[in-house]
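QUALITY CONTROL LOG
STEP: pairwise intake check
CHECKER ROLE: data steward
CRITERIA: each record must contain a sequence immediately followed by its structure tokens, with no blank fields

ENTRY 1 OF 2
RESULT FIELD BELOW
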Amino acid sequence: MPVLQTRHMTLSPCRPADRDDFIALERDPEVMRFLNGGRPVGCAANDPNADFLMPRGTEAHVWTARRTADGAFVGWFCLWPDGDGSAELGYRLRRQEWGKGLASEGATALVHWGFESTGYERIVASTMAVNFASRRVMEKLGMHHACTIHADWSEPIPGSEHGEVWYEMTRTDWRRG
């Protein structure tokens, strides 16, 4: 995985030294609100029952985002291969970095790399239907809403009754963009 440079960030393949920063994200209830209802995770090891990514610094396909100017931790991005010529985009940023366009900036870099360098034919992303900020990032990338899934949650969280939305973009869509 290459190091990706954006206007404000350097995205580097994650490493074990990033672990504490990743865990700190999971300890913030606002960061975790649309993943598990805001319960801080903060454990040293992955939760085997979690249905979301909890990187610890050894995962392939996860980039650590740091501000280029000062090296400050911003969050992480991933582009996880699905094995069928597609990949799933994900990201999680520190609350202090929200609203600055950094999610769109980092996600754009990964989408570009995914289509240009790895040959993915389709990139997908999902979030809770009520997570309007994340949906807006996906739309800014040029992704379109593909479907909404209503799942039975073992422990429903606020907003889960509205479902999970899936967005996608094909290589052809991206080229037209």
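ENTRY 2 OF 2
RESULT FIELD BELOW
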Amino acid sequence: MTNAMYTASVPVFKQMLGALSRILDKAQAHAVDKKIEPDALLQARLFPDMFPLLRQVQIACDMAKGVSCRLAGADVPAHEDSERTFDELKARIATTLALIDGLDAAWFEGSALREIVLRPGTPKERRFDGEAYLLSYGLPQFFFHVTTAYALLRHNGIEIGKMDYMGAR
């Protein structure tokens, strides 16, 4: 029997992070081919008050690992957010994929009802049951940052489309 919470999270994160890594490959190749300084793409924003591409990828990884680990009842490892290159971002994605791939589907049993507390003890504390956390917070946040990364690269001339965004299923 499959676990619906696992099925609705880990495989989705794996598909989209894999696609994001391949999109970054295309962006890196584009920068080389067009003799564009990679930082021009890595620091690209759609508007000054938005995070740049680099941070969008970091947050997408953080959402995938955080949501997956919390639902599995596992500790969420911290990352330094020190990436500054395409290769470092792709390594961050690979590390995230390895982490979530190592979570056993059985650990997600009962996670729909598990209490998830974000920012405990702070004025921004939020409490969810696992299902609400995944469906109304985790997935929307994750897709926002993956989509924004895609849009930043597409806006900057990288030849990518819907199939690149969707990745392999």
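INTAKE CHECK: passed for both entries
DESCRIPTIVE NOTE, ENTRY 2: Helices lie at 4-7, 10-33, 38-42, 53-72, 86-101, 130-155, 162-166.
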